[in-house]
Design brief:
With about 650 residues, the protein is of the alpha/beta class. Among the domains are: about 90 residues, Nucleic acid-binding proteins (OB fold (Dihydrolipoamide Acetyltransferase, E2P)); about 190 residues, 3-Layer(aba) Sandwich (Rossmann fold), CATH 3.40.50.300; about 150 residues, 3-Layer(aba) Sandwich (Rossmann fold). About 35% of the residues lie in helices and about 20% in strands. The chain contains 22 helices and 24 strands. A seven-stranded parallel β-sheet has the order 12-13-11-14-15-10-16, with helices on both faces. β21, α17 and β22 form a beta-alpha-beta unit. It is globular. The two termini are about 15 Å apart.
């Protein structure tokens, strides 16, 4: 389907188009699927005199002072001060320098925004405003979009309102809409972007059903009509003992069974698409290494994509050790790898001299080519965009695909997201050695005292949630947590790591923690996936109610990896069903099912995954309805949209003609 250009929307000229594209919005259709982060009831805002930290306020104020716009790193900043009655408030705008020309000292305006109390002073970031006599404009339900300050909220809402004329026809026929009680697709988009109420759940469910129906129809067609046949043969017998002798442990029965199934799939004529589902600590990396060993010993190449540099380096270290004295060459390519070193890797991979390439997003580069790539492995696929994963797969001729997933996703959900795949499950190597407890605020000091007491005998993770404001701008909560812990543990024994640090800085901190120089590591969820420090036995997850179950289970899996008794402390001042699920379960698959039931499917993909926002309210019921609706899709009428999905997901080499 040809996409509607952004410039077809009123208010979108070249400069605004560039800003929208920086938010990964490339068409009117993609704009419509850029959903609000939250909704504000303007009639429920509190007066400035009653303001609390985090509350939304609407007030009239006179500008008493304003600065010249100034720059800090990549942010353009403009400050002003307003007086409302006898209350002064600091106003700040990011990347909106035009505001400085619209506000005049001595004039009164109406302001609306979120209050921040800093050192007993009131602040408001990126407030909406108008002339005081136009105060009545602030009524109704206001959607707030995660624009990261790139486009003002008011401008973005106006653009969105005009884009609503481009809502495409529904792929679900009218009979099914009536049968399943579905609202009209255009009404669903209007309800989300021009809400009359903050309750938009049914509208989100309707759009989720639409997207799922599209995918399932495309997946079904591709499965029926297109099968990719490989021209590779695996004739050589492989002696895995050649690599296993380099490791301090042998594969478990569960791991050996998984390897047998993967080898069987590799030998089939049809291209393999296998998902290796293993709970945290189950040993998926060893299974992946054995799969690579089999492929390489048969004369082909393999590649592994990891979501973070820390994990990529960890994989590289493991594979180099496992393949020692086997003659197998392993390369590591990261975003931070020097250009000269990258060129050597590009040359060796394309000449066939490099057997295995491990990397982060750098492996997706067009410059990386292979002589004969046979196996592409994606670690935690949902952390990569669909196009990225496909770009790795397409570096080989019908390359087989193995996905490693420590985020257990119900099979029906996975198929709806990625298409048909064979699922292989492996068990944890160690079970039942992590005790999980919820820690209320009154016990917080005791908890940190326990960490200090055991500081020399074990290592502790302390996890802070990532915090984003309404526009999607991230702020760090790590620093305050670091200060708090330093009252209990000497600062020189505490490491700090968060997402805004450079990759090499994070690596240094991680190495010091692994080596025992740091006994406590304060971090955001950058340690969520795959990080392996075997002697860490305590993890504290602060404000645990802000995390999804899958993320909490992943974080808990960072400790107890050597089988020692370990402890997971969840701090929260709220009642939260998710936390009770975690204290009662250590089975990731049961937890995933509970997460699916509690929060729907969107949380299982992470916001980074393309299309994740459209799956925000996927439930077992919407999956069932979408499957039924997909059976009666008019494939001729909607062939362009079906072909778009087929191409997007690289389901096969077929198209619907």
């Amino acid at each position: 389907m040809s996409k509607t250009p952004l410039t077809s929307i009123k208010g979108v000229a070249d400069a605004v188009e560039a800003k929208l594209k920086s938010l990964s919005i490339n068409s009117a259709e993609e704009l419509l699927d850029f959903f609000p982060k939250q909704y504000i009831d303007l009639s429920a805002s509190v007066p400035l005199s009653d303001a609390e930290d985090g509350s939304y306020c609407l007030f009239d104020g006179v500008i008493t002072d304003k600065s010249q716009p100034w720059k800090k790193n990549s942010l353009q900043i403009f400050n002003a001060t307003a007086k409302s009655g006898n209350i002064f408030i600091r106003l700040v705008w990011f990347n909106q320098n035009y505001v400085s020309k619209r506000l005049e000292i001595g004039k009164e305006y109406a302001f609306f925004g979120k209050i921040k109390i800093r050192n007993f002073n009131l602040e408001m970031a990126n407030p909406n405003f108008c002339k005081s006599e136009e105060h009545d404009r602030f009524t109704g339900i206001c959607p707030i979009y995660p624009t990261k300050g790139i486009i003002p909220q008011g401008s973005f809402r106006n653009i969105m309102k005009d884009a609503l004329k481009f809502v495409p026809d529904s792929i679900i026929n009218g009979e099914n809409e009536r049968k399943f009680g579905l609202m009209h697709i255009k009404d669903a988009y209007f309800a989300i972007h021009c809400p009359q109420s903050k309750d938009v759940k049914e509208a989100y469910k309707r759009i989720a059903t639409e997207k799922l129906t599209e995918r399932i129809a495309a997946f079904s067609y591709a499965k029926e009509k297109g099968k990719t046949i490989k021209n590779r043969r695996y004739d050589k017998a492989v002696n895995f003992d050649e690599m296993l002798k380099n490791l301090p442990f042998l594969p478990t029965d569960s791991q050996s069974s998984a390897v047998t199934k993967i080898v069987k799939n590799l030998k089939k004529e049809e291209r393999m698409n296998t998902v290796l589902c293993g709970d945290v600590g189950s040993g998926k990396t060893l299974v992946a290494a054995m799969a690579c060993f089999f492929v390489i010993r048969n004369g082909y190449q393999a590649a592994i994509a990891a979501p973070t540099e820390i994990l990529a380096k960890q994989h590289y270290s493991f594979f180099v050790k496992a393949f020692a004295d086997t003659g197998i060459s392993v390369g590591l390519i990261l975003g931070s790898t020097p250009v000269a070193e990258k060129r050597k890797i590009y040359s060796a991979a394309s000449d066939g001299k490099l057997d295995l390439v491990i990397g982060t997003h750098a492996v997706f580069s067009d410059k990386l080519k292979f002589a004969d790539l046979a196996l592409a492995i994606a670690d935690e696929q949902h952390r990569f965009g669909v196009a990225q994963r496909n770009s790795l797969v397409e570096k080989g001729s019908s390359a087989d695909v193995l996905t490693l997933s420590a985020t257990p996703i119900p099979r029906t959900m996975y198929i709806a997201a990625y298409g048909e795949a064979e699922f292989i499950t492996i068990d944890r190597r160690v079970k039942g050695n992590i005790k999980t407890s919820i820690v209320p605020p009154k016990k917080r000091a005791d908890m940190f005292g326990y960490v200090a007491k055991r500081c020399e005998e074990t290592k502790t993770y302390v996890i802070a949630p990532k915090i984003f404001d309404a526009e999607g701008i991230e702020s760090e909560s790590c620093e305050e947590l670091y200060k708090e812990i330093s009252h209990y543990v000497p600062k020189e024994k505490i490491g700090l790591m968060h997402g805004k640090m450079k990759a090499d800085e994070k690596s240094v901190v991680m190495e010091k923690f692994r080596d025992g120089i740091y006994r406590v590591l304060v971090a955001t969820t950058v340690v969520e996936v795959g990080v392996d420090v075997p002697d860490a036995t305590i993890i504290i997850i602060t404000d645990a109610d802000k995390f999804g179950l899958a993320a909490l289970h992943q974080l808990r899996g960072r400790v107890g990896r050597n089988g020692d008794q370990s402890y997971c402390f969840l701090t929260s001042d709220k009642e939260c069903d998710r936390l009770n699920v975690l204290t009662a379960n250590d089975d990731g698959f049961k937890i995933a099912e509970e997460d699916f039931a509690l929060r729907g499917g969107g949380e299982m993909f992470g916001l980074e995954q393309a299309g994740a926002s459209s799956l925000k309210y996927v439930t077992a019921k919407t999956l069932k309805i979408a499957s039924a609706c997909a059976e009666s899709v008019d494939k001729e009428r909607f062939k362009d949209r079906i072909n778009d999905v087929i191409r997007e997901f690289s389901l096969s080499d077929v198209t619907l003609g």
